[in-house]
Amino acid sequence: MGPLPRTLELFYDVLSPYSWLGFEVLCRYKNIWNINLQLRPSLIGGIMKDSGNQPPALLPRKAQYMRNDIRLLGQHVQIPVQFPKDFFSVILEKGSLSAMRFLTAVSMEHPEMLEKVSRELWMRVWSRDEDISEPQSILAAAEKAGMSTEQARGLLEKISTPDVKNKLKETTEAACKYGAFGLPITVAHLDGQTHMLFGSDRMELLAHLLGEKWMGPVPPAINARL
Amino acid sequence: MGPLPRTLELFYDVLSPYSWLGFEVLCRYKNIWNINLQLRPSLIGGIMKDSGNQPPALLPRKAQYMRNDIRLLGQHVQIPVQFPKDFFSVILEKGSLSAMRFLTAVSMEHPEMLEKVSRELWMRVWSRAAEKAGMSTEQARGLLEKISTPDVKNKLKETTEAACKYGAFGLPITVAHLDGQTHMLFGSDRMELLAHLLGEKWMGPVPPAINARL
């Protein structure tokens, strides 16, 4: 038997476009590198509050920068990311509480669906400029990911239960314990050490730490493990 | 004759360790990619003030993160960067005004020395491996005298303002002039994206030297 896969935890929030970029890159590499990728739905609002940080978009020059940065990175990483028209309303007013509670419920009951449902929520808010705060919106994303209406509705009912609320809270606190001041964070467990890497732009460094090959953000699929 | 080299402007401050990382990577690629690298000594303090931003190190969790990030990146990029013992005193109290005025004077009078002298200053602040840059004592003294002249003060001010006009809220920024467009990239971690924009090959932060143009 070969060496044991290394565990990577990806803490993310669908409100965060950089989380999407990091998520897709790691999803591409999970079948190439010897890793065990664990997705950890978290609340970026909770992390900001706990760390004393502020969303970068509140600084005008950073907001302006992010528009271009996201656009260029989207092209490079080949993800159809696009700024919503009313960006401030989406990020600062509507938020992502229901969506992240829903993903938490998915992670608890149907973890095999977590990747696809997460992706569909990002596609709504960060590609098609669609709502993710209303129950109907979340159901639509779940169904697009391949969930039956019944399954999706069942999970939606659970989002205001103490179990789900607490699980999201715990995951967010775990990210804070690792030192997060924003998202995404990738936590790599290697040789008894823990490395927390912030941002979608530390994947080449992650490859270096894992002793794996970096083939850019869009690695050839033929290298996939069978 | 081949296509014209594309101009890249690197705005940096020796107070910024991420500026050092970006600087070294671009210096390695300047003889590999078809680019004309122009070094622009700037004042990070001025950029913070003008943009309303704050040094990240003022947020405790960011300061803690930076220590590890710089250490790991230093290993990956192969630069002997190390956090100074009294980091806050260095960054927030001492600052870099004289050093950046000195580099501005170098850029005005001995631009061919700018790369080496910049590196030497980073070595002093951000490493323990300082060496001499090769400037004669006379040359250095002459430049030192110029740092409080209006010409040098103004030039540093202008360069810093130029960075702000490009939208900087921190350093380093790399400004790439391509096909009539201008792209401002912030941070030392946008070099692979820069390669993509230039249509050049990214070979990691330590490219093989044999690919260097002769």
UniProtKB/TrEMBL annotation, chain A:
Gene3D superfamilies: Glutaredoxin. GO terms for biological process: glutathione metabolic process. GO terms for molecular function: glutathione peroxidase activity; glutathione transferase activity. The active site is at 16 (nucleophile). It is an enzyme of class 2 (transferase). One of its GO terms (cellular component) is mitochondrion. SUPFAM superfamilies: Thioredoxin-like. It catalyses: RX + glutathione = an S-substituted glutathione + a halide anion + H(+). PANTHER family: GLUTATHIONE S-TRANSFERASE KAPPA, GLUTATHIONE S-TRANSFERASE KAPPA 1. This is Glutathione S-transferase kappa. It comes from Odobenus rosmarus divergens (Pacific walrus). The gene is GSTK1.
TrEMBL record, chain B:
Gene3D superfamilies: Glutaredoxin. The keyword Transferase applies. Keywords: Transferase. Its EC number is 2.5.1.18. Residues 7-198 form the DSBA-like thioredoxin domain. It comes from the Eukaryota. One of its GO terms (cellular component) is peroxisome. One of its GO terms (biological process) is glutathione metabolic process. It catalyses: RX + glutathione = an S-substituted glutathione + a halide anion + H(+). GO terms for molecular function: glutathione peroxidase activity; glutathione transferase activity. The active site is at residue 16. Belongs to the GST superfamily. Kappa family. This is Glutathione S-transferase kappa. The gene is GSTK1.
